[in-house]
Amino acid sequence: MKNIKIEKLAVSGGKPVSLKQLKPMSWPPRDEATAKKLSEVYMSGNWSFNGTEEQAFSKEYAAFHGAKYGVFMFNGTVTLQCALAACGVGPGDEVIVPALTWLATSTAVNQIGAKTVFVDIDPLTLCMDPQKFKEAITPKTKAVIPVHLYGSTADLDAIISIAKKNGIFVVEDCAHAQGGKWKGRGLGSWGDVGSFSFQQSKTLSCGEGGICLTNDEKIAERLYRLKHIGYAANTAQGKAASGPPAGLICNNYRATEFQAVILRGQLRKLGKLIALYNRNAARLEKQIAGIPGLRVQSRGRLADPQNYYGWAVTFTDDVFAGIPFSRIQAAATAEGLPTWGTYGSVYKHMLWNLPKSKYRIANGKCPVAEGISSTMTAVLPHPWLGSDATTIDSIAKIFAKIAGNADALRMMK
At 27, is the secondary structure helix, strand, or coil? Predict the structure, then answer.
C-alpha cells in the first residue's frame, strides 16, 4: 500500500473509504446448543456449589493451556486477588506491575493490603520491560504481575528468570490472552498462577467470570479455599475435614453453572477463532507495513499463536507530532471505522484515587507508558479481526489514508 494515491480525508469533505460504517463480527457469540444447555441447567435446579459444569470447565480450560489445576471464580478481578493471596502476598509486601494496564491489575494488589510498584513498559510489545522490573526489586518485593496486554506476550523467559533468582512469585495477568501460547504452551501456565477474565468484551466471555490456573498443588488448594469460603476442593459442601490455614481469609467467589455452560461452548471453538484472528491480523499488517507513522504493537517474541483482545497501532511522532489523538479518531470514524484509545497509565487514570502511600512509581516516572497512553495509540477490539476480507482491507486503507494526510490533519482546527 506504499504507492497508493492518497485521497482527501472524509472529515475534510472527501469520499470515505466505506460509505457505511464498517461493522465487526457480532460479539459475544450465541448459539442454539448453548441456549438449550442453559435451559437444561435452569430446569435442573443445580446452579452453583461446585457443580458438574463448573468442574468440567475448570478441567477443560486448564488442559487447554497446559496447566494441572483450574479454579473458576465469578470475575477476573477476584482471581487476581486470590492469586496473590494464594502466594502469601499481604500487608507490608510490594507487588511490581506494568504502568500500562487496566486498573484491576493494581487494585487487586491494594485490596489484599500490599503496595503496588509501577514499572515502565517495552515500547514495541507494550508489556512490562524486564529490566525495569529487575531495577525495581527491593527486599519487600513478594510478587510480579506481567500483563499480556491486548494479547501480546510479556517476555516470560526474562521475567521468570529474574523472579526465580530473587524468590519472587509470578502471577500472569492473562485477562487479554485466553488461548494464547508462549513457546507452544498456554499462557497462564508459566508463572506460579495465571489469572484470566471472561468479562463481556473478552475473547472467551460469559458476561462476567474468571479462572486461576496453576501447576502447584498447594497453591491450587489455597485458591479453592479462598473462593469457597474456606472449604477444600475434595470435601463435600458443609463437611470440610479441616478449616483453612491460619491467616488465609476466605470468601465466596464461586461462579455459577450458567457461566460454565456458556464458556464450555465457546472453548470448543476458541482454537479456530484464534487462528482466524491471526490470519486477519497478518493480512492487515502486511498491507500497512512500511507506511511511515504507523507502528503495530509487536507480538511477544515467542508467542505462537497470539490471541488478540485488541489490535493496537501507534501513530508515531515522526509523522503525527502535534496532531491531537482525538483528531485522528474523528478522521477514522468519518472513514467508517470507530476506534478505542489505549489505557492510560494507571496512576493517571481518572478512576485512580489511592493515596500515594499505597503505591510507588519506580524511578519516579514511567515515560514510555505515559507517552503511549497519553497520545497516539488506537486499538481495534478483537471482533474486528473476525471480519471478512473486504472489511480487513478497508481498515488497512483507512489507516494508510490517515497516515498520508497527516499534514492536513495537523492544519485542521
Answer: coil
**What would the CATH number be for the domain defined by 32-264?**
3.40.640.10
Instruction: Single out the residue of 220, 221, 191, 196 nearest to residue 209, CA to CA.
Output: 196
Class of the 10-28+270-411 domain?
alpha beta
pLDDT value, residue 238: 47
The DSSP letter of residue 347 is G
Q: How far apart are CA 89 and CA 140, in angstroms?
A: 10
What are the C-alpha distances in Å from 116 to residues 36, 151, 175? 44, 23, 19
* 379, three cell numbers: 486499538
Nearest to 17 by CA among 291, 402, 310: 402
Which grid coordinates belong to 233?
A: 476442593
pLDDT < 70: residue spans in the chain: 1-5, 234-241, 373-375
pLDDT tens per residue across span 198-210:
999 999 999 999 9
List, in sequence order, every residue forming a beta bridge with 72; answer none if it has no partner: 211
Q: How would you write 167-178 as a 3-class SS string?
A: CCEEEEECCCCC
Cell numbers for 97 = 506491575
Distance set, CA 198 to CA 127, 207, 238 (Å):
21, 7, 28
Is beta strand 115-119 parallel, antiparallel or unpaired with respect to 94-98? Answer: parallel
Cα–Cα distance for residue pair 264/277, rounded to 1 Å: 20
- For residue 109, CA distances in Å to 97, 103, 120, 126, 177 come to 9, 10, 18, 21, 20
DSSP state of 356: G
180 within 8 A of 270, measured Cβ to Cβ: no
- Helices then strands, counting H and E runs in the chain, come out as 13, 14
Residue 184, all three cell numbers: 507452544
- Number of Cβ within a 10 Å radius of residue 403: 22
- Interval 180-228: pLDDT, tens: 999 999 999 999 999 999 999 999 999 999 999 999 999 999 999 999 9
Chain mean position to CA 153: 10
- The three-point CA angle 369-354-255 to 5° equals 90
Residues 91/114, Cβ–Cβ less than 8 Å: yes
* Spans of all domains in the chain: 10-28+270-411, 32-264
Which residue carries 470440610 as its cell? 240
**All three cell numbers of 240:** 470440610
pLDDT at residue 354, rounded to an integer: 82
Query: How many residues comprise the chain?
Result: 413
